[in-house]
Write a structure and sequence with these properties.
heterodimer, A: 171 residues, alpha+beta, five-stranded antiparallel beta sheet, globular, B: 800 residues, Alkaline Phosphatase, subunit A, Arylsulfatase, C-terminal domain, 4 domains, ten-stranded mixed beta sheet, six-stranded antiparallel beta sheet, 16 helices
């Protein structure tokens, strides 16, 4: 099953540097090939409200599995109640659109603007479902996270996964 | 009038017999100017400034070894005296009622707070006429009197234009009042009352939000300047009661950022550090030990996020408190500038009770969630904090936060527990500073006589040379229960007159006598007020079966060594004495203020329709029709001009709990905030027609039960135009302080979508708004809901 499914994870943080710690832990796992990831981004909003995509990890651990050319269609379709009008999911859609680094950097900052209050951060990640336990252990500082499973090959599944993850955050 | 002719024992002071001569005409008549004279206080009676800080602990101000910088408090202490065995009642209104009357709080009807008038004499929230207040006595003796800030002695449902006003400040002895009547206020959006009129929510200036604490000294000084100009020779009495440090903990960042990193060590280490400073200052004996309490988690057991969140909570509380000190300093500076500081008796109490534990262990983004009995896990609190602005917003105007109860515990260092817990010193012992140069020979000295808030009135009267009246308005007066400690100002060896004292709040009890303290804590965590918890104290409960602790305070300043097992005879002696005192001072029945939890509720109000004609603004929170837990309908008759309309038809409270009916982009909308936890909006598809229009929001509850869900329908001229579901509704109270407006949304708005247009005044005409709060309620449901409403009120009262 793990060969066929990915986890879509959204994690939010009250403290940006604790998000950085988790991000670093996540990247460490990927670099060590402990987990296999499709993409990851750390998005922070500073106290003055400026949003930055501090790092992306899409070059790590990518096995080349196609997540589907239609993944990017998820853009704008995601509006979980907690993050209503937040477009976290839209950012995720951007992230998963073949995980093009430039696109991630160009799109996420803008789309996360409404999602994060000043002085907070979020991590968006897609990784092999089989690595869920290891990822969970790495993201020790999140105040809330939500995970949905998607089929690697289906854009429709990704949309559902985004909605599920968002709904999970809202609960 | 000459002093010899004045009988001050009976108030109002009677005019002396005419000593002149009256003829048929002025020819031959001899005047007696005493007939036209004002009563003046005895020669030498000083000005009196009483400052009362709210919800703060013994271990908060640096003046008493705390981590919060309080230079003005320290200046007063260094020029005056520190009292380190001064006591309060453990709850807000009771301490205020006791202080202002000089009588025990139950005897003056304040076993609990003003929000809830219970059906027993000790809990009716009504200061009786046989217990005239200190300001009334001073006023009748020629003092000019004022109260600035928090009041909290007017019942919740009497804070409107309809009165009655005899329990407002003007009715209890204050010539002038400016502040907020309730138990708390938003520091950025308080509903201000001046004398007998609710003025509304002030607006900020120069692009900055209004900030109540910074306005208090201005209003105080304005009054001082005016009365001094008009009556240069008369002394004044000012009661300056801050809203700080009560929740919501709100302060500009410039204050809270001063404490960045200062609490990263956590509450366990902070307690030890505070104790060390207290020993160094000498405000606690060198052998003082810290009591331990496993109700609070050890700091080291927390996650990194929790540590950072909780440290920030305390930074905000500290900045908020330091700001209060700064603002009192501004008042002192004004008095000094007037040349009157040395002629003023300054009495400054840091806390009407111990620091408040009502934020629960995690602290909360909205204190009303606790008071409504909504259980939120730490994870949920953090999620909601994230939703409402994150950690950066803690202390800002858009959040109503309260810190973790463990910080309150640390604030009350070296004592255990805190607010509500009258059985322990954490709830009942607070710092007192007195400055009065002409009487104090050892400025900077320490006094350790057992003193209590009921001692303030007799002490002030003695220093002013005014007797406690035997009669006021023809009514024989109850004796003062407190004892003067005036002679302790000049003598550290002054006798300790206050040798025994009972304590009771929300069922927590203590009896003090000659150094011994019997603690009888209700076996309940202070922040738990749900019916299940309280059920154990209903029929069948024997308070004498509760666990007790016994302390001998001369050897054990902070109650760290329980001697109950070693001295059972002392336990029985003090327990018996407590019951005697309880009977004497109307403490009985214990938990009389929470009677509604045990089926004792007032008659159901007959009124269920309330009509507001025209534009009525700034209706106080307790005066608003109770729409909770059942179906209701709100209808507005409006006139829509040709060309359309926009603005608020009705708005109650704010985005952290409230509801609004408004027109935006031509469409009728209804927004309901369930305490900021859930939010619901319905809106019509089409614009309102021009002309006379009836708009209505109808809530059809699933069933009559607390926090019921239900369906909302918006109607225009009787036709449904929108609908939606509200899964959860507010069960007891939307807000502790925000008000309701017809035709606008003053203060913080209910729906942030129109915040940039606030107060978003309605551009059409509003003829009337009618609430029908019981459209389809059966008698049985009405009774059940009434009981629940009363429980909600009582729960709020216990925590206010």
């Amino acid at each position: 099953m793990s060969e066929e499914t990915l986890d879509v994870l959204i994690a939010v943080y009250l403290i940006p540097d604790l998000a950085q710690e988790d991000f670093d832990s996540f990247v460490d796992l990927a670099e060590a090939k402990t987990i296999s990831i499709e993409g990851v981004a750390l998005v922070t909003k500073d106290a003055d409200g400026e949003v930055k995509v501090q790092e992306t990890g899409d070059h790590l651990g990518h096995k080349g599995a196609a997540a589907g050319g239609g993944v990017g269609l998820a853009l704008g379709l995601f509006a979980p109640p907690l993050l209503a009008a937040t477009a976290v999911g839209a950012a995720l859609g951007g992230l998963t659109g073949k995980f093009a680094r430039k696109r991630v950097q160009a799109g996420i900052g803008e789309k996360m603007d409404d999602a994060l209050p000043p002085g907070s951060a979020g991590i968006i990640a897609i990784y092999d479902h089989a690595d869920a336990d290891a990822v969970s252990g790495a993201l020790a500082n999140t105040i809330r996270k939500s995970v949905a499973e998607i089929d690697k090959a289906s854009a429709k599944e990704l949309k559902t996964g985004l909605e599920e993850a968002g709904a999970g955050l809202a609960g | 009038m000459s002093e010899e002719t004045i009988d001050r024992s009976t108030l109002p002071i009677r005019r002396p017999p005419f000593a002149g001569v009256t003829g048929k005409t002025l020819e031959g008549s001899e005047p007696d100017w005493n007939q036209a004279a004002h009563v003046m206080p005895p020669e030498g009676a000083p000005n009196v400034l009483v400052v009362l800080i709210d919800d703060a602990g013994f271990g908060n101000p640096s003046t008493f070894g705390g981590a919060i910088d309080t230079p003005n408090y320290t200046r007063m202490a260094d020029q005056g005296l520190r009292y380190n065995r001064f006591h309060v009642t453990a709850v807000c209104s009771p301490t205020r009622a006791a202080m202002l009357t000089g009588r025990n709080h139950h005897r003056v009807g304040f076993g609990l707070v003003a929000e809830f008038s219970g059906p027993f004499p000790g809990y009716n929230a009504t200061i009786p006429r046989d217990c005239a207040t200190l300001p009334r006595v001073l006023q009748e003796n020629g003092y000019m009197t004022s109260a600035i800030g928090k009041w909290h002695l007017t019942p919740d449902d009497q804070q409107g234009a309809s009165g009655p006003f005899n329990r407002w400040p003007n009715g209890l002895g204050f010539d002038y009042y400016w502040g907020f009547l309730g138990g708390e206020a938003g520091q950025y959006d308080p509903l201000i009352t001046e004398n007998q009129k609710v003025l509304g929510v002030p607006e900020g200036k120069d692009g900055k939000p209004y900030y109540f604490p910074d306005d208090m000294p201005d209003k105080a000084t304005d009054w001082l300047h005016r009365v001094r100009a008009e009556r240069p020779g008369a002394p004044w009495f000012m009661y300056y009661a801050t809203g700080c440090s009560h929740a919501p903990h709100q302060v500009p960042r410039e204050w809270s950022d001063r404490y960045q990193g200062k609490f990263d060590q956590g509450w366990d280490v902070a307690r030890e550090q505070t104790l060390a400073r207290q020993k160094e200052l000498g405000v606690v004996p060198p052998d003082t030990e810290l009591p331990q309490n496993d109700a609070f988690p050890q700091w080291d057991s927390l996650s990194d996020t929790e540590k950072r969140l909780y440290a920030r909570q305390m930074e905000v509380y500290a900045g908020y408190s330091e700001n209060a000190d700064w603002n009192v300093g501004r008042v002192l500076a004004a008095i000094e500038e007037m040349g009157e500081l040395d002629d003023t008796l300054v009495i400054w109490i840091w806390g009407d009770n111990g620091a408040s534990m009502e934020g629960t262990l995690s602290g909360t983004f909205n204190e009303l969630t606790t008071l409504n009995g909504i259980p939120l896990t730490t994870e949920q609190q953090m999620g909601l904090l994230f939703k409402h602005g994150g950690l950066e917003a803690w202390g800002g105007e858009l959040m109503a936060p309260h810190y973790s109860s463990a910080w309150a515990w640390a604030s009350n260092c070296p004592f255990d527990w805190g607010k509500q817990v009258a059985s322990h010193l954490g709830g009942t012992r607070n710092p007192l500073v007195v400055r009065f140069p002409e009487a104090i020979a050892d400025p900077g000295g320490l006094r350790s006589q057992f003193t209590h808030v009921i001692d303030i009135a007799p002490t002030v009267l003695e220093i002013a040379g005014i007797p406690a009246p035997t009669h006021v308005d023809g009514i024989e007066q109850e004796r003062l229960h407190g004892f003067t400690f005036a002679d302790s100002l000049s003598s550290p060896e002054a006798p300790e007159r206050h040798t025994q004292q009972y304590f009771e709040a929300v069922g927590n009890r203590a009896m003090y006598k000659d150094g011994w303290w019997l603690a009888m804590r209700l076996p309940r965590i202070p922040w738990q007020l749900d019916p299940e918890v309280l059920r154990g104290f209903g029929p069948g409960w024997d308070p004498d079966d509760d666990p007790v602790e016994l302390y001998y305070l001369p050897d054990d300043f902070a109650q760290a060594r329980d001697l109950a097992g070693e001295h059972p005879e002392k336990v029985e002696e003090l327990r018996k004495l407590f019951w005697e005192e309880a009977e004497r001072y109307q403490v009985l029945p214990i938990l009389g203020g929470l009677s509604s939890f045990y089926g004792i509720v007032p008659p159901i109000p007959k009124e269920s329709r309330f009509t507001y004609r025209g534009r009525i603004e700034n209706v106080a929170a307790g005066m608003i029709p109770r729409i909770y837990n059942h179906s209701y309908a709100i209808k507005a008759d409006i006139v829509v001009p040709e060309g359309g309309v926009e603005g608020v038809i009705l708005a109650a409270f704010d985005h952290l709990g409230g509801f609004a009916l408004y027109v935006q982009d031509g469409k009728l909308k209804h927004h309901y905030s369930m305490l900021g936890v859930f939010e619901y909006t319905q809106e019509s598809d089409t614009a309102l027609p021009a002309g006379e229009v009836g708009v209505e929001v109808v809530f059809a509850a699933d069933e009559a039960k607390p926090a019921t869900g239900g369906e909302v329908t918006l109607l225009v001229n009787g036709d449904p135009v929108a609908s939606g579901r509200m899964e959860h509704t507010v069960p007891a109270r939307f807000s502790g302080y925000a008000g309701m407006d017809i035709g606008c949304d003053n203060g913080l708005v209910v729906d942030r979508s129109y915040a940039d247009k606030a107060p978003f005044r309605f551009t059409g005409e509003i003829k009337q708004v009618t609430f029908d709060i019981a459209p389809d309620l059966s008698d049985e449901d009405a009774q059940l809901l009434h009981e629940h409403a009363q429980q909600g009120l009582a729960a709020h009262a216990a925590s206010a």
